[in-house]
């Protein structure tokens, strides 16, 4: 895909030779691309104090998050993650963007990776390549939100707070599992896939992308966008054009990398402030399951917001319209600036639960 470059962002690569993934497979040369906005600020010990890690979703990369919609809503002067105040780090996860991925040449011989590997590499980038010992915050969307939950468990003292957006702290299951499995099956069962050695986009991936669009958009938005047959033809044609420019191996690897994700056993170990934001028209993470409502109040410093959908809000894809939820990021960043005293600590879970429930009901 073509992206307009963000001239203010610094682009860089870091490489590790003979990188070993958790299952024992290795990649002779692992390249991770990343971008940064802003300038690191240091304390008297020379440690960076204003770093914020921003994590993309499946199939995206740093270029999407550095686009005009995100910059205007989140990173411009006076916005919640003002790049004049914070040192913003945008990695392209393994398998995505300008980082090492199957379509570079290995195709189906690329090492298998999962979300734990993704977080391992993010941590390696932050601590080794950039020298950041402590993050002020992590903001992640969808897969990035799931990674944020993982960070909070794996490195409980390494950040002041995490904000997972459109994600749940449970194993990939239900609709979220079925659509992933259906897309993978559509790709692998297509003879044109040829065990990953295809010459052009397999038709099974085009079908898989249509499944993705059915799931990722809200029912009300699709009703508005597809009122008749010609509109359906237009949308299906647009889907085909997009799918043909996405590598099927890359998407297959990124989808199956989620199957081992399950933060449930480690939730009690989360110490940091956490604000979970979901949208009630998101069919990937249905609010009717009441996962945030039953989980977040049990955290030491947990809050949640379930933002109501509108007639035109696109469900899970509301994450791509940050102007609609930037005010919650502002609330989160203000919360991080407020110290938690030992006196209020014991009552925080109850207070935050009420705040979260009220926010979800009133906004």
TrEMBL record:
Domain AB hydrolase-1: 78-202
Keyword Chloroplast attached: no
Pfam families per record: Abhydrolase_1
Species per Swiss-Prot/TrEMBL record: Pendulispora rubella
Recorded superkingdom: Bacteria
Key words, A-Z: Hydrolase, Transferase
InterPro entries associated with the record: AB_hydrolase_1, AB_hydrolase_fold, HAT_MetX-like
Protein's UniProt name: Alpha/beta fold hydrolase
MF terms in GO: hydrolase activity
